[in-house]
Design a protein that fits this description.
Layout lengths: L3 H5 L2 E3 L2 E9 L4 H15 L2 E7 L14 E9 L12 E4 L2 H7 L8 E5 L5 H6 L16 E5 L1 H9 L6 H5 L2 H12 L5 H11 L3 H20 L6 E3 L10 E5 H16 L3 E5 L6 H8 L7 E4 L3 H13 L3 E6 L1 H17 L3 E7 L16 H6 L9 E3 L5 H16 L2 E7 H5 L1 E5 L65 H16 L10 E3 L5 E6 L3 H13 L5 E5 L1 E3 L5 H5 L4 E6 L4 H10 L4 E4 L8 H12 L1
Helix pairs in contact: 2-7, 5-9, 7-9, 8-9, 10-11, 10-15, 12-13, 18-21
Amino acid sequence: MTDTKAARLPVQELERVVIRFAGDSGDGMQLTGDRFTSASALFGNDLSTLPDFPAEIRAPAGTLAGVSAFQVHIADFDILTPGDVPSVLVAMNPAALKSNVADLAPGGTLIVNVDAFEERNLAKAGYASNPLHDDSLKAYKVYEVPMTSLTLEAAKPTGAKPRDAERSKNFFALGVISWMYTRPVESTIEWIQQKFGARPVVAEANTLAFKAGYNFGETAELFESTYSIKPAALLSGTYTSVSGNTALAWGLIAASELSGLSVFLGSYPITPASDILHELSRQKHFGVRTLQAEDEIAGVNAALGAAFAGHLGVTTTSGPGIDLKSETIGLAVSLELPLLIIDIQRGGPSTGLPTKTEQSDLLHAMFGRHGEAPVPIVAAMSPSHCFYAAIEAVRIALKYRTPVFLLSDGYLANGSEPWRLPDVESLPDISVPFATEANLDGGFMPYLRDPETLARPWAIPGTPGLEHRIGGLEKADVTGNISYDPDNHELMTRLRAAKVAGIDRDIPPVEVDADEGAEVLVLGWGSTYGSIAAAVRRIRARGLKVAQAHLVHLNPFPRNLGEVVGRYREVLVPEMNLGQLSLLIRGRYLVDAKSVNKVKGLPFKAAEIEEALLELIG
């Protein structure tokens, strides 16, 4: 690739840019965004991404329902979100333009595939006239690029059929943006060869399209400048770009190594949790066993059976799957066996919004079982934090012999960011001993509890002399015999509750990042972390005072949480639900927590939380 044109153009140095690729669900926008993200990560930028998938599996091509988008925020400093609004929009067809242009910042850059703006596609998108020919886009800097025709021309040497060659136009768009923002190109070309090497014609067409897009930027005399974003000053170490689901899967593997137990995943495919099953199924060399069950109930039953047999039992799902798994989770509470339930939350109720994010399963995880069946809850706060949240959830499950909920959501699951690989020596030892011999003169007592944790012994089936009953009926204290005695039932219910409540001695206190004299606390959990922290930065840049705290442990709460929330005049709780954590905070601590809520299937923008904070601060 030549650099003659780029050398003549001025290079503007930027601190950050937010780019959104948008097109039909068959246009490869997720792949395009992912490759631009990877190139930026290799370059050393900090980054955060927001993939946006259509819910329809086969929406008609060119319609609003079929639009797929991928937003990436890259910067030369530490960033926390994928950006409130894109500064650059690449629109591959009229539907992509109509669905996304309202989000584009005024004065932003709009790059359109002009070849797609023909009458039929305009009608599908609901345009009465061509927006490229009227004044509707005058607020933006518009570049009309004939991506389809130039891609077809570039791919001619491969002999590919025009229909097949046209599919490479996403790589043409990637080439243009890579040139415009001075991204390294060698890694992308190498990746194309690796990804499509088994199909040489496809690999060559994608490569030629990518180079054609890059060269178009150099030679078309269409653009005024190129842009440079320096690498971010990150902590030294080895980094990789990781999505939340991948980090979570790796966290499970790490937990397996740290505990000495093999992972067994019993799962039924469901969006947006399926990637964990896919990733773990590729890791058999770590002793991981995966079962793609026939339904959600079979998946959790198999995982609980694996836990009974002495393995690290895990099941993954989303909200609708939790509905179906509830009885078995209750059985795990009664049996007091370690079981990890991973809920990648999505919009609900029922089928709801399969490809959109939400935080609406907190109360479901807290109370969604019949009877008094408390379960610890851990929530991940960023894509890379999913790794550590998985280890922590496994630690609690093993130490206290209890099922544990690990909450993530679609935003974290599909989003990605740079992750500095941890020092293995810094990870905790979470190994757990199995019972190997009788623990009382009368023999083995399966419910004779550890006095500190109240956990019962974990005996692998087949261990001589340690035979004991399991099942859904209430057990007698100590002996584990079936018991209908009312006093025993109350005792066992209170013991199980006390065991979970006592975990608060074993988790860190909530940390508060506060300006001296601040009267407003913003309290978050889960994936709202980035947006809250970015909003707090903006508030402080205004010279105003605010305090921030974020919860990873949601049941039990950290021991000092009551004292923390009682310290401030106002407590603001942003949630992608209608106020579930707010309800718990009010009920537990009698604090008039204020809610700022969003249930649009999209994460919070920092500006939305900033506005709510400004109102409370006054």
